[in-house]
Amino acid sequence: MSRREYMVNIVVNEIKISQVIIDPHYEEKHASTITDEIILELVKQFDGKVFDFQIIKGGYTYFEVDKLELQGKFYKLIWVLEKDKMYIGVINAYRR
């Protein structure tokens, strides 16, 4: 499966984000509890916030955000920002 791209209009870590790119990796183990739509709703919660990164590697800044709540359920997202780009790349997502 290939990555899927969605348009958004949010600001994260003081960067205007216009796109979310979702890697299908989460579907291997979490397809029964996660969808692209859930991931997009979780990412929208990032709007206006600043997050601490986990690691910077090869032009990518990696983040983990845990205990994101949506409709009474909690989720964890692993995502990246690429230097000088305006997208969030979601690497993995799962329900807690």
Layout of SSEs?
Blueprint: E1 4-12, E2 15-22, H1 27-30, H2 36-44, E3 55-57, E4 60-70, E5 73-82, E6 87-95
Parallel strand pairs: 2-6
Antiparallel strand pairs: 1-2, 3-4, 4-5, 5-6
Describe what this molecule looks like in 3D.
By secondary structure, this protein is mostly beta strands. It contains two helices and six strands; from the N terminus they run ββααββββ. It has helices at residues 27-30, 36-44; strands at 4-12, 15-22, 55-57, 60-70, 73-82, 87-95. A six-stranded mixed β-sheet has the order 1-2-6-5-4-3. A hairpin with a 2-residue loop joins β1 (4-12) and β2. The longest helix is centred in the middle third of the chain and has 9 residues, at 36-44. The two termini are 24 Å apart.
Helix segment tally? 2
Strand order of the largest sheet: 1-2-6-5-4-3
Amino-to-carboxy terminus distance: 24 Å
How large a portion of the residues is in β-strands, by DSSP E? over 45%
